[in-house]
Amino acid sequence: MAGKKVLLVYAHQEPKSFNGSMKQVAVEELSKQGCTVTVSDLYTMNFEPRATRNDVTGALSNPEVFKYGIEAYEAYKKKALTSDILEEQRKVQEADLVIFQFPLYWFSVPAILKGWMDRVLCQGFAFDVPGFYDSGFLKDKLALLSFTTGGTAEMYTKAGVNGDFRYFLWPLQISFGPEVSSEEQRKVMLASWVQRLKSIWKEEPIHCTPSWYFQG
Amino acid sequence: MAGKKVLLVYAHQEPKSFNGSMKQVAVEELSKQGCTVTVSDLYTMNFEPRATRNDVTGALSNPEVFKYGIEAYEAYKKKALTSDILEEQRKVQEADLVIFQFPLYWFSVPAILKGWMDRVLCQGFAFDVPGFYDSGFLKDKLALLSFTTGGTAEMYTKAGVNGDFRYFLWPLQISFGPEVSSEEQRKVMLASWVQRLKSIWKEEPIHCTPSWYFQG
């Protein structure tokens, strides 16, 4: 939808991968719609996944015992978070839609993307007490997890080797096994992704709830 | 149990934290039992969570299109994985019991620990085709997730703000909200942990299944 802002948080090492294609067609389709699309290409950015003392510039509020969550919250309020976190928070803040594009690693997001969540979505920014997720960063925004799997869809059924995928991830946009699919099937997956993006603005906003973050 | 080997994969930045105490009492109790305990202190090691081309020494099997899973599998077979991965695989291989000690971040493991899982538990080592998890790295080993939460136990019930924790993590050893507990309550948690460790060798071995890795 013209004028909308989209943040695409992308976690794949290889531009020629299927994830790379999913990212690319999303950028093209959304740009064609007149949206402004920003991509956070985590591997290219060499995004830091580790939550450490380095995330706080200046003095800690308790230098004796380091508590990451508390220090990040205090630093958020004092605008003393490190610049890479501030930059991502700014992108999220501006976005109407946040898309996460990644391959499934051990039934969850790759560590580099988990680090983005751990560090960017700090208290004060992503949630607060009281209210928790109600006042969260996704309020009045759309969000979409788009990911690929190594196995086929059959492997993620109740009888399959990996179990029913509904038990471990809210199924939003799954590209099952592009590596074990034909070129034709990959094209269908990309086309269905573009189709989804065409009507994305009509979808109901998703608030940041624990079930959304089931596999955070 | 005397003679047993234990690997403790520990992911907290602060030795004086409750996680630090859980780690410490585990080392003490298990050593007292005559076990050999190895600790992988991920933050102190500055463990690399990002799965990249750097994980493979020497030439890639496909330099044109980088596929992490395939390259890691090939490198595992050729003993060409980078040394930090090899070292962790050796520790896992030797261990009779693997304990993961961490604070819950966004309903899952911290990124640094997710990176340990993504990189150390590669195909060939942790699973293979066919057979998948049956031939896995935890076969005939014990494993235990021991983690702390920020919120209280009430917040992780069906009616609570975070939802029922059984939906997002197999409850193995949870230390609910040590930071919001009294010193007395923290002592009870540590004591119950030590108690659990006393009879740990009588527990049934857990195989590496998707449900175990629910929050991988």
From TrEMBL, chains A, B:
EC number: 1.10.5.1
Keyword NADP on entry: no
Gene3D superfamilies: 3.40.50.360
Catalytic activity: 1-(beta-D-ribofuranosyl)-1,4-dihydronicotinamide + a quinone + H(+) = beta-nicotinamide D-riboside + a quinol
Localization: Cytoplasm
Alphabetical UniProt keywords: Cytoplasm, FAD, Flavoprotein, Metal-binding, Oxidoreductase, Phosphoprotein, Zinc
Pfam families hit by this protein: Flavodoxin_2
Domain Flavodoxin-like fold: 4-176
Cofactor(s) needed by this chain: FAD; Zn(2+)
Domain of life: Eukaryota
GO CC annotation terms, alphabetical: cytoplasm
Molecular function per GO: dihydronicotinamide riboside quinone reductase activity; metal ion binding
Task performed by this protein: The enzyme apparently serves as a quinone reductase in connection with conjugation reactions of hydroquinones involved in detoxification pathways as well as in biosynthetic processes such as the vitamin K-dependent gamma-carboxylation of glutamate residues in prothrombin synthesis.
Family: Belongs to the NAD(P)H dehydrogenase (quinone) family.
Quaternary structure and partners: Homodimer.
Protein name: Ribosyldihydronicotinamide dehydrogenase [quinone]
Annotated organism of origin: Rattus norvegicus
